[in-house]
Design brief:
This protein is 31% helix and 32% strand. It is an alpha+beta fold. Strand 7 and strand 8 form a beta hairpin.
Length: 203
């Protein structure tokens, strides 16, 4: 299966440039930019200006061949595929904590609901544009004493760290949960304008 993330946005002219180009007043230009932002056509970043959102995707293809190749090369899969398409990946660690296992996580890990699990929350970016939020849960008995318990980036990826712990990933099961509107925290973290939906996958 494949997964598409939005192509990084390109800068739009500054307010001053738009005023000069179209002979409009600054308040008029600001209202127009705000309208475009509300429609999801541009996004703004403080100190960096406005950026045009383009629909062309970057494709993240989840195949056994890609997985094995990137593991052999010691590269994280997301980072490798983004770089192969000419862009710059980034993974930010938001939080690492021990939390009670939610029901859907407990069922997949084969543990009791509410049992302690190690959770890592991350934000994935392409050319500084947020494209994905991730929560990963681990049975603490499997990852005790490893980097997975720490808020650190693992250079060769979490699967390489799991192998060092004697854990071998043999298959993935992807469960598409559909699309919905983001909550306030998700919209803020992904820098989404009002009304732009997100999709949810469980793997």
């Amino acid at each position: 299966p494949g997964r598409d993330v939005g192509r990084p946005a390109t800068p739009s002219p500054s307010e001053s440039e738009l005023v000069a180009q179209y002979g409009a007043s600054r308040p008029t230009v600001r209202r127009a930019l705000r309208e475009l932002q509300l429609k999801g056509l541009i996004r703004t970043r403080q100190g960096k200006g406005s950026f045009v959102r383009t629909p062309s995707p970057i494709a993240i293809t989840l195949t056994a061949e890609n997985y094995r190749r990137h593991q052999r090369e010691g590269r994280r899969g997301f980072d490798a595929q983004v770089r192969e398409q000419g862009h710059t990946p980034q993974q930010e660690i938001i939080e690492v904590a021990t939390v009670p296992a939610p029901p859907e996580v407990a069922g997949r890990l084969g543990i009791e609901k509410g049992a302690p699990v190690v959770m890592r929350r991350l934000r994935f970016l392409v050319d500084d544009q947020p494209v994905q939020l991730v929560r990963v849960y681990y049975d603490p008995r499997l990852v005790a004493g490893s980097q997975l318990e720490q808020p650190v980036s693992i250079e060769d990826g979490v699967h390489a760290e799991l192998r060092r712990l004697g854990v071998q990933v043999t298959r993935f099961i992807e469960d598409f949960q559909g699309a919905r509107l983001p909550n306030a925290d998700e919209a803020r973290a992904l820098e989404l304008p009002h009304g732009v939906p997100v999709t949810r996958n469980i793997r």
